[in-house]
Design goal:
Largest sheet: 10 strands, mixed
CATH superfamily of the largest domain: Periplasmic binding protein-like II
Low-confidence stretches: 1-21
Number of domains: 2
CATH architecture of the largest domain: 3-Layer(aba) Sandwich
CATH class of the largest domain: Alpha Beta
Helix content: 25-40%
Distance between the termini: 39 Å
CATH topology of the largest domain: D-Maltodextrin-Binding Protein, domain 2
Structural class: alpha/beta
Strand content: 15-25%
Number of helices: 12
Amino acid sequence: MRLSRLLALFVALTLAAPAAGQDLRFFRIATGSAAGTYFPVGGSIATAISNPPGSSPCEKGGSCGVPGLIAVAMTSEGSVANVSAISKGLMESGLAQADMVDAAYLGSGPYFRRNAMPDLRVIANLFPESLHLVARRGSGIENVRQLVGKRVSLDKPGSGTRANAELVLTAHGLQLAQLKLLEVDPGFATDLIIAGELDAFFLIAGYPAPAVTELALQKAIDLIPMVGREVDLILRRHRFFGRDRIPPGAYPGIGAVETLSIGAQWVTSARIDEELIYQITKALWDPRNRPLLHAGHLKASSIRLQTALVGVTAPLHPGAERYYREAGVLRPELQPE
């Protein structure tokens, strides 16, 4: 569903009167660019946990979400912007990279000179995201070092992609001043690649990312592998990264690509009601909602209860923690400190 339709739906439902005896609640999920993975995955999650007044009963094939809840996926500038919006009370929840969640909670990394966000809480780890370095075909770029002097977008400053792209450049001994730097989101980067006005861009997203698929269909790009001693150094220094492989055929006409991955997490604030987050977490993992996730983006269909706590180092929200204890998946060794 297009963003304009989502916003129109949100406004219409805001004005609608709830059914008699049923409270109406709204729950926003900050995601990322419409050309990335967070937005479609967030949309699938929003559909799964919603149960607007007047919906058919779950047992009769209707909504199996939280009674009276309307969740909406909202586009944003990405992980950094999302955790900030949650901390400021501007969003109820959002998707963010695991490293950005940990850094925001502790006040480290890109948050070293900012205030820590001690109220940040995790609902679930969702899926692994892959680092994409997308190069315009014919640009002469075959590795990270060949970005020197090229027109390169690192995404916007409010994105996790930007923070991790800078980390990759540093590991390869490159400085931003050596690039012809642009700061655009993946959707605009796609347009610039097609117009021949951009040589490469970074994107951290679950494959297949819509922006990359669009370019691959036009045979306009190559994906640059992340291999070598510099990547080994990144893996040793940054525990949130893991080795990853984008499989052949994930993007039309592009073979397997070795790269890095990092977990995508769904986060909220400790200020959000415990019972509400408990019900939301329960709805997310309700087996009857699986078809909604399977019908969405490939990465939405890969969300599994068995991996809900993988890579989670920031505290769980008490409501989510209660659900995981009841479900028997929160063992002592998996309890975040």
